[in-house]
Design a protein that fits this description.
3 domains, single chain, mainly beta, 506 residues, 9% helix, 6 helices
């Protein structure tokens, strides 16, 4: 995939700020605003000003969520666009100093303008950080926007919040603006743009990367493929397309779509979508959306333990059981189960949801890598066990499954073993840290070997290693879909488990 490096290139930048200091005490608090009180900043032809005034507040204390509008600290300000140009603006809090005990779900902010609002918390705020509160606020030329910033401690009966009292936050409100011509140039950001914006450093991979597991932060992050012979050739130039993929100890690729949590795995070679793996059901805690963390993700099951994931007959000693579809009209149990899950959990939500899913091919690689006696070792075994050199490219066209090819009815399947090795695992070596570990054995779409006594598939073990299991052994399933690059991300999410990206569905 070719990366458009011109996605976010401001032509004129304006910074205006005011100082906000909050001191919290048990039944009272003082909020003092002082220091910087700018009336305007002019850069070139762009003139944006932030109204400001000193604010003194007393008797600030933890409050229930329903009383935020009437009891929380509120700072009202106006962003004036005094120029002849439209502006697209971002609102930040520059955190000068924040007490450790305020880094919590329960210390919250809310920004309100017109009929729009965004709520966030300070859990990931550190002294010296810039916290993005709102992005892409459009203001027409020679107009203004009134805004209100609320800050409060949300009171929760069962939570001891005494250590949050008598503490302090000092911050600056900062406005960044760029000049634009029209509203749609200040649109909501897409998930693809969000990934690039939040991962400024993209690392180049190499073959040595896959000779060990990725269990350290310096081996982790967003990577790009450098060997384009190992990816699918979409444009017909003889080389594959660049793929971006997450690898290792990654905690900023949680996403919520269709009322389910997912982990972002990689981009697809088509350049139209990103691949997601199911990550459990979200919960709501104190207004925050929480996804199950790495290593604690229940999968969906095929059924009772005596129903084999790939067999349909309760047997494993037939070569056809290495196929996602055994023969015309006969699907593997795994395929039947994930498609039923998709129908119930995604299709049932309507076309507004399914229209965001792209029909990309899934690979069930049955190419033969080698043979020994009555053993057939498939291509995945040679690549991942012998050579330790994964690839995204599917060797045989006949092993590709997609709705458009007509060999599956729904755009859902499983990850390949190769995709899991790219993500940070390897054969027979534990890796508790890499982001696709679930805490339970789970199935891949890649067969390992076959003998007359049975077929074997790659699985990911509970401890994170790449292993093997007979099709007669039970393993959990984690559905995989491809989400359109153009899907819009709700404002405020940063991709972590307790503040995931949330996809907007109209």
């Amino acid at each position: 995939m070719k990366i458009d490096k011109k996605i976010i290139m401001p032509s004129i930048l304006v910074l205006v700020s005011s100082v906000l200091v909050i001191t919290l005490a048990y039944f009272g608090a003082e909020i003092i605003e002082n220091g910087v009180n700018p009336t305007g900043v002019t850069t070139g032809n762009l003139d944006v000003s932030l109204s400001d005034s000193v604010v003194n507040v007393s008797n600030l204390k933890p409050i229930y969520a329903q009383y935020v509008d009437s009891m929380a600290f509120r700072k009202e300000f106006t962003i004036n666009n005094n120029s002849s140009l439209n502006t697209c603006n971002k609102i930040y809090l520059n955190i000068n100093n924040i007490s450790d005990t305020l880094k919590s779900y329960f210390f919250k902010y809310k920004l309100v303008y017109d009929e729009n609002e965004i709520i966030g918390n300070f859990k990931y705020a550190n002294s010296g950080d810039r916290l993005l509160v709102y992005e892409n606020l459009f203001i027409e030329s020679n107009t203004f926007k009134d805004a209100s910033l609320y800050i409060w401690i949300e009171y929760v009966d069962e939570v001891d919040q005494l250590n949050m009292l008598g503490t302090k936050l000092s911050a600056n409100i900062v406005i960044e603006g760029t000049d634009i011509k029209e509203l749609n140039a200040c649109n909501d950001i897409t998930i693809y743009e969000r990934i690039l914006a939040d991962n400024q450093v993209i690392k180049n991979d190499n073959v040595d990367l896959f000779k060990d597991v990725a269990d350290e932060t310096n081996e982790s992050g967003l990577f790009r493929t450098t060997d384009l012979t190992k990816t699918e050739d979409v444009n017909g130039d003889g080389l594959g397309e660049e793929v971006l993929y997450f690898r290792g100890v990654v905690e900023n690729n949680y996403l919520v779509f269709a009322n389910q949590c997912w982990r972002i795995v990689r981009t697809n070679e088509s350049g139209e979508s990103i691949k997601l793996r199911y990550g459990g059901t979200p919960t709501i805690i104190s207004g925050a959306t929480i996804c199950p963390q790495t290593g604690n993700v229940p999968g969906i099951t095929v059924g009772t333990s005596n129903i084999f994931p790939y067999s349909v007959s309760g047997s494993s000693n037939d070569v056809k059981y290495v196929k996602w579809v055994h023969e015309v009209g006969k699907s593997s149990n795994a395929k039947t189960k994930v498609e039923a899950w998709y129908a119930q959990n995604i299709e049932a939500l309507g076309t507004n949801v399914t229209d965001l899913i792209v029909d990309e091919a899934f690979c069930n690689d049955t190419s033969v890598g080698s043979t020994s006696g009555d053993y057939v070792y498939y291509g995945g075994y040679t690549r991942l066990y012998t050579n330790k050199n994964p690839q995204y490219k599917c060797p045989n066209e006949s092993d590709k499954y997609s709705v458009s090819k007509g060999n599956i009815s729904k755009p859902v399947a499983l990850l390949t073993a190769d995709e899991l090795v790219y993500s940070g695992t390897m054969d027979e070596k534990m890796n508790n840290k890499y982001f696709l570990r679930t805490g339970t054995n789970h199935q891949t779409m890649t067969p390992r070997s076959y003998t007359s006594t049975g077929a074997g598939f790659f699985i990911v073990a509970a401890g994170g290693s790449l292993g093997v299991a007979s099709v007669g052994n039970f393993s959990a399933l984690y559905p995989v879909i491809s989400l359109s690059n153009n899907s819009i991300v709700a404002k405020g999410g940063i991709g972590v488990y307790d503040n995931p990206y949330i996809i907007v569905v109209n």
